Amino acid sequence: xxxxxxxxxxxxxxxxxxxxxxxxxxxxxxxxxxxxxxxxxxxxxxxxxxxxxxxxxxxxxxxxxxxxxxxxxxxxxxxxxxxxxxxxxxxxxxxxxxxxxxxxxxxxxxxxxxxxxxxxxxxxxxxxxxxxxxxxxxxxxxxxxxxxxxxxxxxxxxxxxxxxxxxxxxxxxxxxxxxxxxxxxxxxxxxxxxxxxxxxxxxxxxxxxxxxxxxxxxxxxxxxxxxxxxxxxxxxxxxxxxxxxxxxxxxxxxxxxxxxxxxxxxxxxxxxxxxxxxxxxxxxxxxxx
Length: 289
Hints:
Elements: H1 19-26, H2 61-67, H3 72-90, H4 92-101, E1 103-107, H5 110-117, H6 122-126, H7 129-150, E2 154-158, H8 167-173, H9 180-204, E3 207-211, H10 213-222, E4 231-235, E5 260-262, H11 270-288
Parallel strand pairs: 1-2, 2-3, 4-5
Helix pairs in contact: 1-11, 2-5, 3-4, 3-7, 7-9
């Protein structure tokens, strides 16, 4: 229902990029997970999983506002609508079974810092960095409680990337290697996120796991060969140091993206996402079976 669809469907993807498809493939689930808002979505597809994901969103609804994407609050509204349609299709009992046994993957947080707190003036005027982190954690807890109310019981959380290792950030900060100050922000937040997740796990009776995407990408950047990469310091597109999103249009790319940790100056390559997805599945197997 919310973010990944493994066999028992559904996903609440609050994530970014092609991660949900990679995770589905990692468990042998070859079918592409359709967006809930896909006009071609068929009723019979509902029990096999849908995605509510919206790239560039975050725990803070203001992150979605500045990026003009769906907020988590809106995604959860769609989740509730999904359940209504699912009940109509498979019946109350089957619908409850699906929602309670589905695997939900939440992958966000990076843009709360990069697109929100460190870029826009609104939140820094309201919160210190520590206060903002606590605000994000309170939003996370609120959202998980709502997911639980709607039936979610098994959650995988993908933590925040090592912000200081993102090529664009290194360029803007004039850093030769990863920017240590920004990495410390991400590392500290992930530790708090895990602590909050464990509290919710105990309080709500959830089965949970946190994917260490921070550690994976940091290792891939500092030692690319460990994961079969050649280049970890810049992206495949253009110079690899400044181009991302719309600025990639009309720009040439490298001949083999699988040799790169990053596709553009911000986003990892499909190969890197697949490695993260495999780690998510390993966490799933370790913690849920």
